[in-house]
């Protein structure tokens, strides 16, 4: 069964979605600049009162949050190009080892489950700080950090195993595209892990409070993005290598 047309359709659809996300984020970013206030006559009461933390913008969202949506949309296109390159050169390696000769599906499935579990912990982390419960925040923030660090450990172990099996960056097209794609994602996970550890430590110095929940929410957006990207990578690289019908 030739799945190449399905791959091509998937890539085109992904690029189209990334373009829409980027357009939507940019439009809302420009709309988010503070609105100008009309001059009021002398003695006129100002009925408008701003809640603590409220930003008076056209979208009602803080500029920094919309900026991160723009960044994540651009990162979507970056990962889309790497995934496209992997699919284009898929099955064109002239020298071994080939994917199913080195993959350990059980190990990768476990690490994937751990990373996805961290998304649930990240939700609890944000909930904790929004409630002003620092103890809850610290527990789930550190749990998310541990999940991310464990995923990185599995990835380093997997890379080391592949190298011992003879798969290096310059071995063949599979090695080049595989290491570039998964390595880039690994760097993103590492950044997220350091970010989580920083927030956890900073909370003991009084730097993380309920008033600064937006900063934790932005970290959550980044972490969920990293998890979603891995779902796509895991599906494209690992699941599509499993022979249909056994």
Describe the protein in words.
This protein folds into 2 domains: 66 residues; 150 residues, Four Helix Bundle (Hemerythrin (Met), subunit A), CATH 1.20.120. The protein is built from 7 helices and no strands. The chain is elongated, with a radius of gyration of 22 Å. The two termini are 13 Å apart.
List keywords for this structure.
7 helices; 246 residues; mainly alpha; disordered N terminus; 70% helix; single chain; 2 domains
In short:
The protein is mainly α. It has helices spanning 4-31, 63-88, 99-102, 105-130, 134-164, 173-203, 213-238.
Number of helices, counting only DSSP H or I runs of 4 residues or more: 7
Low-confidence stretches: 1-7, 29-54
Characterize the overall form.
Answer: elongated
Report the sheet-strand fraction: under 5%
Assigned CATH architecture of the largest domain = Up-down Bundle
List the helices and strands and how they pair.
Blueprint: H1 4-31, H2 63-88, H3 99-102, H4 105-130, H5 134-164, H6 173-203, H7 213-238
């Amino acid at each position: 069964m030739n799945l190449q047309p399905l791959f091509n359709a998937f890539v085109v659809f992904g690029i189209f979605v990334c373009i829409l996300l980027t357009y939507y984020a940019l439009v809302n970013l420009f709309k988010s600049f503070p609105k100008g206030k009309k001059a009021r006559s002398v003695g006129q009461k100002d009925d408008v009162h701003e809640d603590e933390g409220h930003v008076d913008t056209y979208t009602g969202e803080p500029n920094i949050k919309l900026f991160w949506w723009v960044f994540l949309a651009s990162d979507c296109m970056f990962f889309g190009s790497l995934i496209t390159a992997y699919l284009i050169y898929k099955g064109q390696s002239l020298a071994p080892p080939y994917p199913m000769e080195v993959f350990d599906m059980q190990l990768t499935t476990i690490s994937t489950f751990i990373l996805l579990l961290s998304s649930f912990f990240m939700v609890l982390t944000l909930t904790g700080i929004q409630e002003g419960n620092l103890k809850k925040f610290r527990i789930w923030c550190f749990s998310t950090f541990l999940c991310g660090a464990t995923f990185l450990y599995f990835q380093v172990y997997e890379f080391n195993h592949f190298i011992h099996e003879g798969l290096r960056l310059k071995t063949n097209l599979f090695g080049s595209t595989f290491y570039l794609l998964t390595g880039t994602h690994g760097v993103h996970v590492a950044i997220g892990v350091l970010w989580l550890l920083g927030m956890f430590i900073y909370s003991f110095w009084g730097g993380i409070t309920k008033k600064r929940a937006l900063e934790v929410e932005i970290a959550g957006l980044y972490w969920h993005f990293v998890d979603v990207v891995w779902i796509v990578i895991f599906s494209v690289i690992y699941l599509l290598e499993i022979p249909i019908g056994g």
